[in-house]
Structures are given as structure tokens and as C-alpha cells.
Write a structure and sequence with these properties.
There is one protein chain. 50% of the residues lie in helices and 0% in strands. It has five helices and no strands. The model has no long low-confidence stretch (mean pLDDT 77).
Length: 135
């Protein structure tokens, strides 16, 4: 098992405009303030540090799937999202069902083998009688 990276808590003093800019950037990128400052140090040229997170560096996932790594919603994704949200729930369900139907036409579902194990003959018999009854 890989060793967990060591982290240290620090306290820094920044001019208010710099802190406001860091907070604004963190919000735009959907990242934490700590990540923004750590990334700035890595990009500014911290010796032995790379700009991309590696083992032992702060890693955060983007929580919004429509936000790119630059924090901007792609124009086409935004248009598609707005168009989808303008539809009624019933229409969205119908479109989803149609997509499933079309997908099955392109790639029909394969027959699957089913293997079932039982602890006893009684369990098997109960399953068999239930299965025959359509339950």
C-alpha cells in the first residue's frame, strides 16, 4: 500500500485583493483555496514539483460534470443542457426510451448464461417451483 503524503497546515497573510482574486479563481475552477495556492506554487516553479498533481500532491475532482478543467462550460454542452431542461419530464423519459430502443437496434442485447447456486436441494426446489409459477 502506498504511503500517504504528509501535509502541513500553514498560515499566510495576503493583501485583500490577492485573497479575493484567489477565492474568485477557486470558485471559477470549482477548487479549494488551498488547491489554487498550491497550484500557483507548482506553476511558479517550485523546485521538484510538477504542474500536474502526482503522488503526494493535493488532488481534487471537479464536482460539476459540465465544467471543464478551465472552469468554463463548453458552449455546446450548455446549449444542450438548457434545451434538455426546457423539456417536460415525460418528454425526457420518452427520448431516453427511444435512445435505448435505437441502441438495441445497433447492438442487440446478447443472450447471457445464468449460473445459479443453491445451498440445498430444498432451496433449488423452492426456486424451481417459484420460477415455473412466473414469480
Amino acid at each position: 500500500m502506498p504511503k500517504k503524503p504528509a501535509f502541513a497546515r500553514i498560515s499566510i497573510t495576503l493583501p485583500e485583493p490577492v485573497l479575493a482574486a484567489a477565492d474568485k479563481l477557486a470558485k471559477r475552477l470549482d477548487r479549494s483555496r488551498s488547491w489554487v495556492i498550491a497550484e500557483a506554487i507548482r506553476r511558479f516553479g517550485g523546485e521538484g514539483l510538477s504542474a500536474s498533481p502526482g503522488p503526494g500532491m493535493v488532488r481534487e475532482t471537479i464536482t460539476n460534470p459540465y465544467v471543464s478543467h478551465l472552469g468554463a462550460i463548453a458552449e455546446s454542452d450548455e446549449r444542450r443542457l438548457r434545451a434538455d431542461l426546457a423539456l417536460t419530464p415525460e418528454t425526457r423519459v420518452r427520448q431516453a426510451e427511444e435512445l435505448v430502443r435505437l441502441g438495441q437496434m445497433v447492438r442487440p442485447p446478447r443472450a447471457r448464461a445464468q449460473i445459479i447456486g443453491f445451498d440445498s436441494y430444498e432451496d433449488y426446489y423452492q426456486w424451481k417451483t417459484t420460477h415455473r409459477a412466473g414469480g
